[in-house]
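mind reviewing this fold:
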Amino acid sequence: MKIEYLLPTEIESKSFQIITEELTSMSINLPEDEAPITKRVIHTSADFDYATTMCYSKNGIEIAKKLIKNGAHIVTDTNMAMAGINKKKLATFGGQVHCFMADEDVALEAKERQVTRATVSMERAARLNKPVIFAIGNAPTALISLYEMMEAGQFTPEFVIGVPVGFVNVVAAKELFLNSDVPYIINKGRKGGSNIAAAICNALIYNIK
């Protein structure tokens, strides 16, 4: 294959052009509002399966953008996802990104209660005095904890990005929110990850007008 020498600013544009061409060749026509998000996920992963497994609740994208525009905070379940989100751009809308997973007091409480740090982190996030978008890319326990709080009438998430990756409880945890009334962006199946959660957040942030 021929090596292309491109400026850094040209690489992303070329990548999205290739993604669009390949989707067209597969006869996949993404809905207009979903396309920027799904394409950024594919750009992050080089995995075209996401073109058919990404799921969006009715008016979910519009709801998420409105939340961000009105200063919602984003809570992630990994520092990797937090690092990947464009915090400077988010801050222009008044939002911040949080991850409580590595906090010493979270680890201590989780050990004392014999629960996961993801459970304690979600409980901390529920006490934030701000609308919150949850971006879960690693821990299905985080999604399960949010759902259990919701079922108990303790807390209802404003929005859930559910893309944990793995084999244990991953599919089932995602299904909880696919069958709920909470607005969501979720990838069906085992695939996902912190990078995917960050990519979805950035796609939403970048496409606010």
Remarks:
- The chain has a mean pLDDT of 96.
